[in-house]
Amino acid sequence: MTDTSPIQHAHDRKSLNSAEIGALAHLYRGEVYRSATWRTRLDTTTNWAVVTLGIALSIAFASPDASPLPLVLVGVLIVFFLMLEARRYRFFNVWRARCRWMETHFFAPMLHDGNLHMEEGWQKRLAEDYWHPRYHVSLTVAVGRRIRRNYLWILLIQALAYCGKLIVHPRPVTTVEQFVERADIGPVPGLVVLAAGALYVLGWSFVAHWSYRDDVRRAQSRKDSSSMG
After folding, report:
1. Four-point Cα dihedral 57, 61, 66, 68, nearest 10
2. What's this model's pTM, rounded to 2 decimal places?
3. What ranges in 61-189 are assigned the alpha helix state H?
4. Band (2; pLDDT cuts 50, 70, 90)
């Protein structure tokens, strides 16, 4: 029978000398820098979405006779920025996960009791992530997370502004039929436009909710702490 005692496992762990500990510290600083850089890029795409929505609001509410169409077309740009930000988030999540990994498996044990080897295989797991880099979350999960953090509010503001424009301009509506008629876009009936808008908001909201449930499920099913991301 194979001996799997803690003593044997201790021999499987690599002891770090002073030079290697210093190298690991510099590696951590580099990963923190990359994480901060990509975090700034996330803020940039969010700012782009907010600015374009603000421009659309300014155009649509410039006068009572202004068309609400810019509030519809800006949705294309918002989705483009959302997908770009989700892609950037997948990169950011790699650097963030590595930083958190070193914090919980190297720095935290060292600060707590001087033990640099709290968990079996943490060094090997980190090395594997460098040898075979990969995304830690899917694009769908990344999209859902960014919607939950920022874009759900942007989408709701866009939808409320569009409905408000139809309600108050050029004159306050008095009937539901008048509200639907104002939503007409050329040959496209207003009812179809409103239904597409509702599907637009609800669809992204569903993606956000699904990603949240997926995050909870993965956290609950994670039986060991040796996974990263």
Report:
1. 50
2. 0.81
3. 69-102, 108-113, 122-131, 139-146, 152-168, 176-182
4. very low
